[in-house]
Amino acid sequence: MIKNNAISIGDGSILVRTARKIVTQYLIDGKRIKLDSDFESRFSFSSGIFVTLNKKNELRGCIGYPLPDQKLSKALFDASLSAALEDPRFEPVKFDELNDITFEVTVLTQPNKIKVENPLDYPLQIKIGRDGLIIKHSFNSGLLLPQVPVEYGWNEIEFLNHACEKAGLEKNFWKRNDIIISKFEGIVFNEETPNGRIVQKKL
């Protein structure tokens, strides 16, 4: 489990490069590469993670795990392949697309339930550019990463509305008393260009 800013740009660069390597090798020969022992040791702690693929500034795939249920090394491996091949919104990525795709890795802190006495106070407990959201109600759930409202220019209420819609709920569902809303922080690393320099994204 991580605390915010607990992962360096060096760590982030390794994670992003490894995510690309995992996907590239699988698309070449259908085989899962074996991660070296140094990598597995370095990222042996448990953490939530998301891998995002963008093609010419458009989303091409995004899959991840919000909870720290497995070691980061394994979670990265699974999320990388799933983002490329199993996002139900897109066709699987093809090898000849990779030179047009940038890889992004978001390492998550532990989600914490937001506690309010009045649901209308939820926006006051959220900071755009810091927090991601998880909305849960009955069998519905939805997650939006902290970079999403920044990229779309949403305020806190719009962020809540879209998180509800991501969960398959009406956009103002967050105003109810029987909903569970959790927030988390994310450390985001991405390629500036396909196969290019890796930076920590400032939200």
**Count the helices. How many?**
5
Q: Could you spell the SSE succession in H and E letters?
A: HHEEHEEEEHHEE
CATH superfamily of the largest domain: Hypothetical protein ph0010, domain 1
CATH A-level architecture of the largest domain: 2-Layer Sandwich
**What's the total count of β strands?**
8
Strand content: 25-35%
Biggest β-sheet strands, sense, barrel: 8 strands, antiparallel
**Spans of 5+ residues with little confidence (pLDDT < 50)?**
none
| Radius of gyration, in angstroms, nearest whole number | 17 Å
| Class by alpha and beta content | alpha+beta
- What sort of overall outline do the alpha carbons produce when their principal axes are compared? globular
Termini distance?
Answer: 21 Å
Domain module count: 2
CATH class of the largest domain: Alpha Beta
Classify the helix fraction into a percent range.
25-40%
CATH level 3 topology of the largest domain? Glycoprotein, Type 4 Pilin
Overall pLDDT level: 94
Can you describe this structure?
The protein is an alpha+beta fold. It folds into two domains: 9-109 and 186-200, Hypothetical protein ph0010, domain 1 (Glycoprotein, Type 4 Pilin, 2-Layer Sandwich), CATH 3.30.700.20; 112-184, Dna Ligase, domain 1, CATH 3.30.1490. It has helices at residues 9-29, 37-42, 72-85, 147-152, 156-166, and strands spanning 48-55, 58-65, 101-108, 112-113, 131-137, 140-144, 180-191, 198-200. Strands 1, 2, 3, 4, 5, 6, 7 and 8 form an eight-stranded antiparallel β-sheet that branches. Strand 1 (48-55) and strand 2 form a beta hairpin. The protein is globular and about 50 Å long. The model has no long low-confidence stretch (mean pLDDT 94).
